[in-house]
């Protein structure tokens, strides 16, 4: 089976949730669960002031766009492209271009989970990034965000620093 990638679909503005619902329905009806894995409308929390009161509301991160994790083939392309409200895939001409690893990272989309051989209390060394060649003791491990928090000595005091799993190794 081919590899699934994330693609960006352009929709009519304001139709993002309707497009998501229509694609989810098409996946169910055509039994494409193995080929179209996930449909997302990226949202962010925004604090608004209304009548002097602070209120947290969810807003669309990219109005007019929907993200789809799918295996690109003629069937999946046809289903997504011919969904009501979809104007097309993002990419040159009619050829959809998958998102790169670097483009997906700020969206909070992880392609794979990294398993680590360290736990809280272990000493680790940072092998890349801004804190390269730093040694610290793991205070917290967050598997969801794929990060470890270590204490680093800065200006004579211990300071917690969050580091990606990709940047560390156990000592």
Description:
The protein is extended. The mean pLDDT is 84. The protein is an alpha+beta fold and 171 residues long. 19% of the residues are buried. Helix content is 16%, strand content 40%. The chain has a five-stranded antiparallel β-sheet, with no helix packed on it. The protein is built from three helices and eleven strands. It folds into two domains: 5-107, Alpha-Beta Plaits (2-Layer Sandwich), CATH 3.30.70; 123-170, Roll (SH3 type barrels).
Question: What brief labels describe this structure?
Answer:
4-stranded antiparallel β-sheet, 171 residues, Alpha-Beta Plaits, alpha+beta, 5-stranded antiparallel β-sheet
Q: What's the end-to-end separation, in Å?
A: 39 Å
- Under CATH, the topology of the largest domain can be stated as Alpha-Beta Plaits
Helical coverage, percent range: 10-25%
- Classification by helices and strands: alpha+beta
**Rg, please?**
21 Å
CATH class category name of the largest domain: Alpha Beta
- What order do the strands of the largest sheet run in, or round the barrel if closed? 10-9-8-7-11
- Low-pLDDT stretches are none
């Amino acid at each position: 089976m081919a590899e699934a990638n994330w693609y960006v679909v352009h929709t009519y503005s304001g139709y993002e949730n309707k497009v998501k619902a229509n694609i989810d329905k098409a996946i169910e009806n055509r039994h494409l669960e193995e080929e179209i894995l996930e449909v997302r409308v990226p949202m962010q929390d925004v604090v608004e002031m209304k009548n002097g009161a602070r209120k947290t509301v969810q807003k669309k991160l990219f109005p007019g766009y929907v993200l789809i994790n799918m295996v690109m083939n003629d069937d999946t392309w046809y289903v997504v492209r011919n969904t009501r409200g979809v104007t097309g895939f993002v990419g040159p001409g009619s050829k959809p271009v998958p998102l790169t690893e670097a483009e997906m990272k700020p969206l909070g989309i992880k392609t794979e989970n990294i398993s680590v051989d360290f736990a809280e209390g272990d000493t680790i060394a940072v092998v890349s990034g801004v804190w390269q060649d730093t040694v610290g003791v793991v205070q917290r491990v967050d598997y969801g965000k794929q990060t470890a928090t270590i204490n680093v000595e800065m200006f004579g005091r211990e300071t917690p620093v969050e580091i990606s799993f990709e940047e560390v190794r156990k000592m």
